């Protein structure tokens, strides 16, 4: 059963999880309500970019594999969702631990910004300006990345996402949608 816990308890659990998963990751960060400093929360969101490891065959390297395939997810609680880009674990503390896994073409900065939220801000970020959102209308968001035509715009950090949006970085606790009139920002 999902329950709400105080920020300090959620932050400690999130940091413990980051410590455990980090050896399997190029990067792992706490996102969501914990990052925004909400007083009480019902879930913990983590964004993780896995390390890749070479796969060796009889005659040498055969490609790469994802290090998170070796992570012992079940040791953190009941694994409820187990997809390649999203895992959900119900912890013994009764909290949902949501792990968003960044795999190409997804970009860490965009996924981190979206998963930090809040939800209305995230929707605004991915909505084209011609519809009142923050995304320049010649761009689109798909598969966790910002695209211009057939090319991914690199956004390894949140600062890169804000640069693409033409905005100064906004601290997580201050994020709200800035819906614009579509006539003004086409």
Description:
This protein is an alpha+beta fold and 186 residues long. It is 24% helix and 31% strand. It folds into two domains: 5-101, 2-Layer Sandwich (Beta Polymerase, domain 2), CATH 3.30.460; 108-174, 2-Layer Sandwich (Beta Polymerase, domain 3), CATH 3.30.210.10. The protein is built from five helices and twelve strands. The chain has a five-stranded mixed sheet, with helices on both faces. A hairpin with a 3-residue loop joins β7 (78-82) and β8 (86-90). Residues 181-186 have low confidence and may be disordered.
Order of helices and strands: EHEHEEEEEEEHHEEEH
Helix percentage: 10-25%
Distance between the termini: 46 Å
Structural class: alpha+beta
**Morphology:** flat
Radius of gyration: 18 Å
Look up the CATH topology of the largest domain: Beta Polymerase, domain 2
Number of domains: 2
The main β sheet shows up as:
5 strands, mixed
Walk across the major sheet and give the strand order: 2-4-9-8-7
The CATH class assignment of the largest domain is: Alpha Beta
Q: Outline the low-pLDDT stretches.
A: 181-186
- Please identify the oligomeric state: single chain
In CATH terms, what is the architecture of the largest domain?
A: 2-Layer Sandwich
Strand content: 25-35%
Could you give me the name of the CATH homologous superfamily of the largest domain? Beta Polymerase, domain 2
pLDDT averaged residue by residue: 92
Q: How many separate helices?
A: 5
Total E-strand runs = 12
